[in-house]
Every structure is written in structure tokens, then in C-alpha cells.
Amino acid sequence: MNIYLNLFSLLIFVITVILFIVVKLFIYFVKKREFPFPKRLLIASLIGATLILAAFLYTQYFFTFNNLKGTLLEGPINFPEW
User: Fold this and answer.
1) Does any domain span residue 17?
2) Does residue 49 fall inside a structural domain?
3) How many domains in the chain?
4) What letter does residue 70 receive in the DSSP assignment?
5) What is the DSSP secondary structure assignment for residue 81, as one 8-state letter?
6) CA 59 – CA 35 distance, rounded (Å)
7) Domain hosting residue 25, numbered range
8) pLDDT by 10s per residue, the chain, length 82
9) CA 68 to chain centre
10) pTM score, whole prediction
């Protein structure tokens, strides 16, 4: 098997584990209630991150059709008879 594929899988696994630990710590500190957590700031941050991710995915998907290689199909398309 390709070593780069193994390294990529290991990297994804490590990032997932770190993200899981961060989320668990966040939930622990929010439930502990020792400090007032700004919920409006969390909502605004999540909405902002979602919009930025959506804009990034939009530009990556919709503006890459010019890079496709191949020829356009011209003429009538024959459909099989059922």
C-alpha cells in the first residue's frame, strides 16, 4: 500500500482524536458553569464559520468547470427504446 495514503490516514485520525478531545473539554466547561459562556458569540461564530465554509466550497466547486479536459458532445443524443 502507498505510504502517503497511510500517512494521510494517520493524520486524519490524529486530527479527529484532537477534535473529539476539544469538544469533550468544551462540553465539560460549559456544563461546569464556573464562567459565564457567551452564547451569542458562539452562535455568531458558528454562523460565520458556516458562511465562510459555504463560500469556499462554492468557489471550489462552481469555478472549476473551466479546468475540465475533454470535448463537448455535439449533435442529437440517441436514447434507447424501452
Assistant:
1) yes
2) yes
3) 1
4) S
5) P
6) 39
7) 3-63
8) 678 888 888 889 999 999 999 888 878 877 776 666 677 887 888 899 999 989 988 887 777 666 667 777 677 777 777 6
9) 23
10) 0.43
Cβ neighbours of residue 29 under 8 Å, at least 6 residues apart?
Answer: 35, 37
User: Which DSSP letter does residue 58 get?
Assistant: H
Exposure string over 22-38, b if 16+ CB within 10 A, otherwise e: eeeeeeeeeeeeeeeee
Other Cβ atoms less than 10 A from the Cβ of 45: the count is: 11
Task: Please give the single-letter amino acid code of residue 67.
Answer: N
Amino acid letter at 1?
M
Residue 56 falls inside a structural domain:
yes
Residue 76 in domain: no
The end-to-end CA distance of the chain, in Å, is 45
